[in-house]
Amino acid sequence: MISDTHVPKRARELPAQVLAAIDVADVVIHAGDWVDVATLDLLEARARRLIGVWGNNDGPELRRRLPEVAHAELGGLRFAVVHETGQAAGREARAERDHPDADVLVFGHSHIPWDTVSPRGLRLLNPGSPTDRRRQPECTYLTAVVREGRLDDVTLVPVPRTP
């Protein structure tokens, strides 16, 4: 899971580590703010399966090719993907209201990694950004395994800065 790649504004290209992870993943989820169409084209060419949405920094071409909200069933879990969820305060309640049929909500926008569970059991995940850490200690993305209807091995993966 990745979000907020912001290529070429925050990085000239996706880090090699991220591309290697895309190459071995069964599914890649991108929660918006691609910024350039070339990144979408690259992920469509490399990923076995790509689920993506547009973000607030994405222009007309990306908005034409991507939905604002995506839904997919993966291994018996119902995923929803969206770029923005609003402020951190009250996020779980809004997510339950806005995505009542989802088991997992992947979102971006803040560049802040997030992993919580709402009162009804909705898992909320934000992978951070692999290219623009903002005030975070490092750039990040998430990996996970869907196994027998469960989301297992959710791992926040740091992306070292390249010189």
From TrEMBL:
It comes from the Bacteria. Its cofactor is a divalent metal cation. It is an enzyme of class 3 (hydrolase). Keywords: Metal-binding. Its EC number is 3.1.4.-. Residues 2-147 form the Calcineurin-like phosphoesterase domain. Belongs to the metallophosphoesterase superfamily. YfcE family. This is Phosphoesterase. It comes from Leifsonia williamsii.
